[in-house]
Amino acid sequence: MLEVRIERRDGSALAVDDCAQVSRAIESRLDATRVAGDRYVLEVSSPGVERPLRHAADWRRFVGQPAVVTAGPLPGGKAEVHIVSVEGEPGGEIAVVRDERGTEHRLPLVDVTQARLAFHWKNR
């Protein structure tokens, strides 16, 4: 099973046709090189509405959005927060987040063990 997550560079919504085009290109390469053998399953999709936040660029892109974050500096180690901003130099970035009580926390991204966007159907 090969899973590939893609996004458009221009930030616009990903269409099914985009996934199909990428899938055909990857399949062509896999078949030509046989790197995955003769039998494989390839899934190409977007990261989804609850996508992981792994890099400072992800955090910057989603400022203003809700996220579920696991980090030692948070009370209880995990909380749903709103991303306020990202500060600092490359490699030393700090996410400024606001919890449900309105308290702001400064989280060095190196201290974040897991983070993903939070999606709520009732708000859409």
Automatic annotation (TrEMBL):
An example of a Gene Ontology cellular component annotation for this protein is: cytosol
Alphabetical list of CDD domains matching this protein: YlxS_C
What Gene3D superfamilies does UniProt report for this protein, alphabetically? Answer: RimP-like superfamily, N-terminal
Origin: domain of life: Bacteria
List where in the cell it is found.
Cytoplasm
Q: Where is the Ribosome maturation factor RimP N-terminal domain?
A: 1-50
Query: What are the BP-aspect GO terms?
Result: ribosomal small subunit assembly; translation
Among Pfam families, the record links this protein to:
RimP_N
InterPro entries, alphabetically? Ribosome_maturation_RimP, RimP_C, RimP_C_sf, RimP_N, RimP_N_sf
Q: What keywords appear on the UniProt entry?
A: Cytoplasm, Ribosome biogenesis
SUPFAM superfamilies attached here? YhbC-like, C-terminal domain (SSF74942), YhbC-like, N-terminal domain (SSF75420)
Q: Which family does it belong to?
A: Belongs to the RimP family.
HAMAP family reported for this sequence: RimP
Q: What does this protein do?
A: Required for maturation of 30S ribosomal subunits.
* Protein name per UniProt: Ribosome maturation factor RimP
